[in-house]
Amino acid sequence: MTPQSPPNYQVEFKATHASRPGFRINELRISPSQNVPWHTHSVIQDTFYVLEGRLRIFLREPEATVELGPSETLSIPPGRPHLVTNPGPGSATFLNLQGIGEYDFIPAPGGEPTSGRS
To answer: Could you tell me the pTM of the whole model?
Structure first.
């Protein structure tokens, strides 16, 4: 896998609350029609913490689906492909803690599902 720049995917809102070498915290808000596309990271762990709304996170290797609501969290280890969606009906706001290590975004093969809705 070759590290690449993050793809140009759409979100309603994105803010970086902290960024230090090897660690960062971003806040994102996505609508039910938006997602963070399939990807993985070489060395960093992604930790998601939901502030408002709901997230549906699809995982591979092994396959799993996790739904999170406010105050719930999920950590995804390096190398595990994942897709972050919003099952709706309103916007979902969440924190994404990334570290420890150099950030990369490695697109993973796409495919269904493309949105959080079933």
So the answer is: 0.86
pLDDT tens-place string over residues 38-69? 999 999 999 999 999 999 999 999 999 999 99
* CATH number, domain containing residue 29: 2.60.120.10
CB 64 within 8 A of CB 110: no
Q: How far is CA 117 from CA 30, 31, 48, 54, 88, in A?
A: 13, 11, 19, 11, 7
Is 74 contained in some domain? yes
Please provide the DSSP assignment of 40-102 as one string. Answer: E-SSPEEEEEEEES-EEEEETTTTEEEEE-TT-EEEE-TT--EEEE--SSS-EEEEEEEESS-
Domain with 37 in it = 13-107
